[in-house]
Design a protein that fits this description.
binds coenzyme A; alpha+beta; Aminopeptidase; globular; 5 strands; five-stranded mixed beta sheet
Length: 136
């Protein structure tokens, strides 16, 4: 882990560095800075930023009800800082600070989550459009 790593709550001053991080990964968060700001500061959100060498090197967003359930909506670490424990620290802090009983994620990195002790359960996703309602 970088010796100077700090995990801090997301503030507007982090936005430019964060947008660069999203752009490098071609995530949809890179498309519109103001939308990304609104998304990462939405009600119920906890967004944490990992800082090293005065640069944004990682981000995690957990969205929770403050009591029982939380969802890990964003987790990203700059390529040069991967495999140094940054994401593990972000997830641990997100879990602790959301004060929820569980943290769910739709995974793009199964091996990572398994390594951290997440258990695989089935999940579903729907995107905007007609939700099928067939009559029997
Ligand atoms: C997945 C990701 C967040 C991991 O970040 P990271 O900072 O490299 O992870 P860490 O260094 O904290 O790794 C923690 C442990 O998981 C392991 N690990 C990391 N990435 C892994 C992977 N893709 N597969 C299997 N194990 C992995 C590490 O070796 C480490 O193991 P250890 O505790 O035995 O040393 C990072 O690779 C990333 O940002 N990827 C692109 C975005 C992405 O896929 N985000 C997840 C969206 S669901």
């Amino acid at each position: 882990m970088p010796s100077d790593l700090t995990i801090v709550p997301f503030e507007r001053k982090h936005l430019p560095g964060l947008m660069e991080l999203f752009a490098r990964e071609r995530w949809s968060y890179a498309e519109d800075e103001q939308r990304t700001w609104r998304a990462l500061t939405a009600p119920g959100s906890l967004t944490l930023i990992a800082i090293s060498d005065e640069a944004v090197v990682g981000v995690a967003q957990a969205i929770g009800d403050g009591e029982i359930q939380a969802f890990l909506a964003v987790l990203l670490v700059a390529e040069a800082y991967r495999h140094t424990g940054v994401a593990k620290r972000l997830v641990a802090e997100a879990l602790a600070r959301t004060h929820c009983l569980r943290l769910d994620v739709i995974s793009c990195a199964d091996g990572f989550y398994e390594r951290l002790g997440f258990k695989c359960v089935s999940g579903f996703r729907v995107t905007p459009g007609p939700v099928r309602q067939e009559s029997r």
